[in-house]
């Protein structure tokens, strides 16, 4: 049985939080090796997606590029803290999240 642990993180203006299913990290690359978390992190660092819209779009392109290497279900969820207009004073952290 998998044990869940609550973690509290602060989200600042412009931050994006993403979560994906293991079908993506278990996908096979063109060399036959698993993409794994390090490969996914390297890919996202290279393409540098912007905001909560950019992250799923970048992951979708990766899934398309992997083609037949993706054999399990995949999903990604991205949440962001939108930037505040310049006229509004900063009160960071703007919100906090607790994940389980």
From TrEMBL:
<protein>
    <submittedName>
        <fullName>Magnesium or manganese-dependent protein phosphatase</fullName>
    </submittedName>
</protein>
<dbReference type="InterPro" id="IPR001932">
    <property type="entry name" value="PPM-type_phosphatase-like_dom"/>
</dbReference>
<dbReference type="Pfam" id="PF07228">
    <property type="entry name" value="SpoIIE"/>
</dbReference>
<feature type="domain" description="PPM-type phosphatase">
    <location>
        <begin position="21"/>
        <end position="81"/>
    </location>
</feature>
């Amino acid at each position: 049985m998998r044990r869940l642990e609550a973690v509290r993180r602060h989200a600042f203006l412009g931050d994006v939080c993403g979560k994906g299913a293991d079908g993506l990290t278990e996908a096979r690359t063109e060399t036959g090796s698993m993409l794994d978390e390090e490969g996914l992190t390297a890919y996202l660092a290279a393409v540098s997606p912007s905001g909560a819209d950019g992250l799923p779009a970048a992951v979708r392109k990766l899934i398309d590029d992997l083609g037949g290497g993706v054999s399990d279900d995949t999903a990604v969820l991205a949440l962001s803290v939108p930037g505040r207009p310049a006229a509004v004073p900063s009160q960071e952290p703007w919100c906090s999240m607790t994940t389980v």
